[in-house]
Amino acid sequence: MLSRNLQAATRIRDEIAAQMPGVEVHCVRCDLASLASVRLCAQVIRSRFDTIALLVNNAGMVSTRHRMSEDGFELTFATNHLGPFLLTSLLLDRMAIPGRIVNVASRIHYRGTLELDEVTNAKGPYSSRAAYAQSKLANVMFTLSLAHRLSSRGVTVNCLHPGVIATNLLPGWLRLVKPFISREMFDAERGAKTTLYLALSKDLADVSGCYFDENQRRQAPAARAADSDRQELLWSASERWTAGDRPGRIRC
Questions:
Q1: pTM for the predicted model, two decimal places
Q2: Which CATH number belongs to the domain containing residue 199 in this structure?
């Protein structure tokens, strides 16, 4: 899978280079489900760039069955939250002032619950929908918490729901209803609009710690996401886990 993704990235890089001569486009391999791969990716990026003006955490997945990452975490949570959390942490000191961090979340975070005990539990019942909702809730909570931490640093942090995008990343349960909701789905170009708005709009130069919908409108995040105590619980666990620790039972 990673080889195919790298081939696709290389092809897109060449397309951009053909359309914009003189622009440098770099491809760096990264498996977000692997903490070692994320560390290597950050190392390569740091070796190539002294400053980073914009970081967009967009890549994600949905595991249709209960699988664990090589580091011992539920795969969807590892890929969608822990990988971006670690990558962002490793690149923070290279962020330009002013700079922007954009996290692609989802409105399914409204249905998410923070069940951190289940992240390291390889057994028990599993719902791909619940796992995905939890990972997207974590994206929003991470955004709000990081924005607070960087409030005096000149780096803004925002997140968004891009819309339901008609790509091959659709989870199995959503593919089943795709024929019935296809008119409401966006193509990849339309799905990127809100991400680009958060990344580039001059209107958002000083806006941080916000959640936006697919129409570039600011919305209130889920109450669970805005809970500062739960944000700190997630942050502390994420720090320990990405450092290689395995804490005991975590009560949410």
A1: 0.89
A2: 3.40.50.720
